[in-house]
Amino acid sequence: MLLYPLTGAALFAIGLAGLLLQPHLLHKILAFNILGSGAFLILVGLGQRDGIIDPVPQAMVLTGIVVAIAATALALALARQLLDLTGQMRLPEDRPDAEPADD
Amino acid sequence: MTDLLDPLPWLIVLPLAWGTLAFLLGPGRGGRLAIAAIALQLMLALQLAGQLLGNGARVHAVGGWGAPLGIDLMADGLAAVMLLLTQAVALPLAVFARGYFAASPKGRELFWPLTGFLLAALNALFLSADLFNIYVTLELLGLAAVGLVAIAGGRQPVTAAMRYLLATLLGSGAYLLGVALIYGTYGSVSLAVLTPLVTGDAPLAVTLATALMLAGLLLKTALFPFHFWLPPAHGGAPAPVSALLSALVIKATFYLVLRLWLELFAPLTTVAAAQLLGILGVAAILWGSVLALTQSRLKMLVAYSTVAQVGYLFLLFPLATLVPPGVADSAVQGGVMQAVAHGLAKAAMFAAAGSMIVATGRDDIGHLGGVGARLPLTLFSFGLAGVTLMGLPPSAGFSAKWLLLTAALESGQWGWVAVMIVGGLLTAAYVFKVLRRAFLPMAAGDRVTRVPRTLEFSAFALALASILLGLFGAPLLYLLAIGRAA
Amino acid sequence: MKAWLAVLIALLCTGLALALGAAMLALPELAVRLPADVAANLDASGVAHPVTAVLLNFRGYDTLLEVAVLLLALLGVFALSHHASGHTHPANPAHPVLQTLARLLAPLMVLVAGYLLWVGAHAPGGAFQAGAVLAAAGVLLRLAGLLPAWAQPGRLLRGGLALGLLVFLAVAVAGLPQGELLHYPPALASPLILLVEAGLTLSIGLTLAGLYLASAGWKK
After folding, report:
1. Which residues are CB-contacts of B475 (< 8 A; sequence separation ≥ 6)?
2. What is the pLDDT of residues A41-94, one digit of tens each?
3. Mind listing the domains of chain A with CATH numbers?
């Protein structure tokens, strides 16, 4: 049953595209979460493709989810700080009034 | 051997413990605890190296279960070398950081807990023999590094930290996908179990996994063209942080690329892929060196130097893939020696730069006049570090280049020889740019104050180590040979 | 971002998805079967649920590092908090209905968390799930205006945050005389795992709540 891994592959690709293409920081962070969820689906689904329930990837994904939460939290705090300091939720190179890259 | 005093697990537990204790002690506290603990870690790393030299590579099955059910820690020569580098660089840097933050307190509130976790992540990464465990250590390392970049606040560092975080998360995400594919193919994530299973005719999923994992790790190592996040992050952080990041964090992901390339994915590596890595390394050397020459800020120059020096590390791949074993050995030795030499030298360089910035009150190469007179030891350290980066004898940088050149000549790949020579010249150019300015007399309106001795001596210790390693580097190569398949 | 670059990236991502799909459809039989190993060693692990056994025993080292990652993220947020340009901490009481609801729900959530911690030994549950529910209670109380945001953490709070990791480290090191890190003596495995999970529940709950509450007071 390859439904989960295939969905995971699609999610990973969508998340990757979002992370690279979307300029808004919140969208990038969301895209990273989608990308992570895709990888988790593949991890859980691929090892169980012949129907035998496998607790090891399930435990690994639990760990992965917590790690992703930690990373997302730090990213959100940084984004919040950046909004406070610059007034924008974008990295300098992604802003419409493109400034030359900070040195 | 009493198991309670086994150095291997303590190298991971100790930094986690003192990082947490430093947090418990309160903002800014924990410096002396850190220095004492890192000194202990250095002794443990030396003890581990001694064990390996006596008894060969060893495995520690956490929980007593053993792979593939449990997680294995594995120490061979390469891991021991990286552990020694980590502890040996961290100790003088801890002394430097304590003095630096006394002089320039911005950012010291959570420096020690974050550094404790950073060192724990590094040690855990070097010892891990489980692909998913490596992912967790990569995340620990990445978050610690990002936290340290943003530690002093400010628009540019926070921007740099955000960019770094997104890049490092993308890298880990790609790595995780690779691990997912590997588990899905074979049913295990243990390196020991997987290595015999991966053969030349592995399924497409494994080839994809290889590409994904290596690409993710290359992004985290800042190899050209993935280097965009490094200069602002390393150039904008406080000097002790920049030193830790450039000297150690980059080497961790490079170590993983090397390990995967030489062991797990060895049947899948092609000459074309190796040549590609080499070409990217050349691009990194040229791009990083040229941009270093154009910088006006001292820390940014040193950060671009890191971009260039990372390129040198990747020259070993075309010299070590599908070549006679003697040549491959020489190339790997050269690459690892370069990693160690660069770690020591870059830490020294950032420490010296930090001292100069504290003394002049600004981060500007144009206003370094008078530093040579006031801070001779610091400038000497900067120069010695530069000697190592240029690859001049008798430094460890020269030993590394010598080994790589030998490999290049023996395998007839002349192009890399030319690259190494040109790279050395470019390095000399930007090192002398700084030295020249510092020897000029102090300009009107500038100031150069004295800095505490600890700052100068710690930078000097690191620079001296990189030279001594060149003179006495043979034991390192003996250590490196342990556990390496012929 | 230039248009051609965006199109190129989109094409590469699509290509990646297709390659992944093709790779997944062409996989051979699994070489290693871990479920059998897990089942065989379940009795010696100290818990009855296979996922908890993997999480806290067989691959407990991953969990140890993961707890460190979580605490580390909070440390990063605290570091940023020192440079946040304005803090407004006091709890602003919200709509009375929300307050009443929060007051009713929070103790129930603590109870649920306790249950999840206990049941983790033989059904899905455990420290992370319990900690997440505790954290949710904290966030709910903050949103209802009943809990102030965090300023820099005081000694007690720091202790609570560090407790889980320190207990876990202590138990891990206590296993060294048995031969390896995190080696539970088979007779003591159950109580030790419960001890570790209890400490983790508190710390994870505080940490997850803190990831929100530490920045909740920053300038809007």
Report:
1. none
2. 999 999 888 888 899 999 999 999 999 999 999 999 999 999 988 888 888 877
3. 3-94 (1.10.287.3510)
